[in-house]
TrEMBL record:
SUPFAM superfamilies: MTH1187/YkoF-like. It comes from the Bacteria. Belongs to the UPF0045 family. This is Uncharacterized protein YqgV (UPF0045/DUF77 family). The lineage of its organism: Bacteria, Pseudomonadati, Bacteroidota, Cytophagia, Cytophagales. Pfam families: Thiamine_BP. PANTHER family: UPF0045 PROTEIN ECM15. Residues 10-97 form the Thiamine-binding protein domain. GO terms for cellular component: cytosol.
Length: 99
């Protein structure tokens, strides 16, 4: 895997007959917050910044946390931006929009 910094967007959609979906998503976001990686939470996904191997490990822990919190199943969608010769930095893309 590349040593470049990438962006990984993750959307976790928990399925449960009895538990609140937002509370389950909060478990995933908590894992991301505690990981130490740079991240931005949006209404549809959370975008992380770092090395691909590190971000995939965080993503796996996040989905496991949702299952451990009681979800019956999870749908997980990933999107990654990877550049051949340079890093992908969140600030470069959205910095001018953040207040």
């Amino acid at each position: 895997m590349s040593e470049k910094i990438i962006n990984l967007g993750i959307q976790i959609i928990p399925k449960s007959q009895t538990l609140d979906a937002y509370a389950l998503v909060d478990k995933a976001i908590s894992v991301i917050q505690q990981s130490g990686v740079k991240y931005v939470v949006t209404p549809f996904e959370t975008v992380m910044e770092g090395k691909q191997e590190q971000l995939m490990a965080v993503a796996m822990k996040a989905q496991d946390a949702v299952l451990e919190a009681g979800a019956d199943e999870v749908l997980v969608y990933y999107r990654m931006q990877i550049r051949k010769n340079s890093d992908v930095i969140i600030e470069d893309k959205i910095g001018k929009y953040v207040k």
